[in-house]
Amino acid sequence: MQIYQAHIIDTPSPTRFRILENGYVGVDDTGHIVGLWHQLPDDLMSKTQDKSSGVTLTCFGDKMLIPAFCDLHVHAPQYRNLGLALDEELLEWLNKYTFPEEARFADIGYAERIYRRFVHELWMQGTLHSSVFATIHPHSTTLLARLFRQAGMGAYVGLVGMDRNSPDNLRNTTEDIINYYQSLTIDSNDEVRPIITPRFIPSCTPQMLTLLGQIAQQYNLPVQSHLSENRSEIEWVKQLEPDTVCYADAYRKYGLLGTTPTLMAHCCYSEEKEMGMLRDNKVTIVHCPTSNSNLASGIAPVRTFLDNGIPVALGTDVSAGHYMSMLRVIQYAIQVSKLHYAHSDGKISYLSMSEAFYLATKSGGSFFGKTGSFDIGNTFDALLIDDSYLNYDHYSLPHRLQRYVYIGDDRDIRIRFYHNQPLTKPNINND
Ligand code: GUN
Ligand code: FE
């Protein structure tokens, strides 16, 4: 067993931080957490002094250990557009900036150049689990999955399905999808796994949606897509699927809503009927507040989702979201919820720091397995934070964590543990 001493901070529940000041966490040989202590029991302490016991102690002193972050919605091929092209709303933004960039991923050399930087940046920001949209291109998508494996990080990687209302050079067919999934070896114990990824209803014909629903069931794979992000998009879906009662109903119709574990990003305009459908089908909503601000999409009613028992995780939605760090998404989730509170005349309460942190760690992590907090039995996926330059006076630990979330960044991360393995910096260059 390996034992680490540090200030150990996580959110086993949304309502409060669990803080072990000068605490200890024990991890077994398989990378699972076996103990969490305020003070190390005497028998363990003596074992750490006996080399033959197999128990080692590493002291991190005044540093903080927190769970690694989970980004449940991000577009790898949009990485080059980070911070660009945020002067349009969704549908214009897709046509003008996003589709042309994604079409470039037909070139595997280009894909490798950008995807290496993308995986490197997730590592840098301490996001060790992510659910990723790739493009329609099978070779580039397989390459992206390989880069995640090489980096030693967990991910869902989705080949995007799109066969209508898209440029000619950014469409695939149902045959392409069938061939791709037949070519994969799918191992449910793998840390990098495929996820069924219809782009959104306007991009997919009923044939494509039907097939993707069937494949999700046949291979028992999770599903991710976009839902009720923007008003023009929602109107368009009503025209395309006139026999549905809401946007989510269109996914449901094709077996893409909760038949297997499902992520739906945005939900800015989900009303009662849609919320009921999401809850009944155990869908996880991925809240992307940076994206929703940049594309002027709207404010997702996160408090109402939580009150209705709908699981919520957070996503950067790069490059509609302009920043890869989940710290910024936590911060925006809180800030946007405060504007929502003010606009509701104080009727809808805003998110607390512990709630937003929970969404970015334990809630997102539950989609991958037992990760996202330091509960016993979870895998040890953690960040060692050295905030010494922020902590120049006497700050309490809750205040140190708050300052790290609001004004800290990747420079504060000293070690990234994935299943207790310290991850080395992934190569940006192909060497
Ligand atoms: N809806 C369909 N495609 C996209 C995308 O790439 N980004 C966002 N934010 N919404 C979408
Ligand atoms: Fe998106």
Write up what this structure looks like.
The structure is a single chain. With 431 residues, this protein is of the alpha/beta class. The protein folds into two domains: 116 residues, Urease, subunit C, domain 1; 297 residues, TIM Barrel (Alpha-Beta Barrel), CATH 3.20.20.140. It has 14 helices and 17 strands. The chain has a seven-stranded mixed sheet with strand order 3-2-1-4-15-16-17. It has a four-stranded parallel sheet with strand order 5-6-7-9. Helix 3 packs parallel to helix 4, helix 5 runs parallel beside helix 6 and helix 12 packs across helix 13. The protein is globular. The mean pLDDT is 97. Fe (iii) ion binds next to strand 5.
* Unique bound compounds: guanine, fe (iii) ion
Strand content: 15-25%
Provide the low-confidence segments as ranges: none
Cα-atom Rg, whole angstroms?
22 Å
Helix/strand-derived category reads alpha/beta
- Strand segment count: 17
Sheet with the most strands: spatial strand order: 3-2-1-4-15-16-17
CATH architecture assignment name of the largest domain? Alpha-Beta Barrel
Helix proportion? 25-40%
- Structurally, the number of domains stands at 2
Would you state the CATH class of the largest domain? Alpha Beta
Largest sheet: 7 strands, mixed
Under CATH, the topology of the largest domain can be stated as TIM Barrel
> What's the N-to-C terminus distance?
35 Å
**Overall pLDDT, averaged?**
97
Tally of DSSP helical segments: 14
Oligomer state equals single chain
